[in-house]
Amino acid sequence: xxxxxxxxxxxxxxxxxxxxxxxxxxxxxxxxxxxxxxxxxxxxxxxxxxxxxxxxxxxxx
Length: 61
What we know:
Number of strands: 5
Radius of gyration: 13 Å
Order of helices and strands: EEEEHE
Number of helices: 1
Helix content: 10-25%
Structural class: alpha+beta
Largest sheet: 3 strands, antiparallel
Shape: globular
Distance between the termini: 53 Å
Oligomer: single chain
């Protein structure tokens, strides 16, 4: 059984990977090596579920 070359996840917020200088916006689909996605997930930057557009917006009071 071989491991997949890439793994898919979605950005849970805007962030920039300091190591690669790649920037991602909330909801961007990210296809990267499984280790990269695992690192992003450990930092809380990605999820396997696409975030809802209004979930990240603060409530207007």
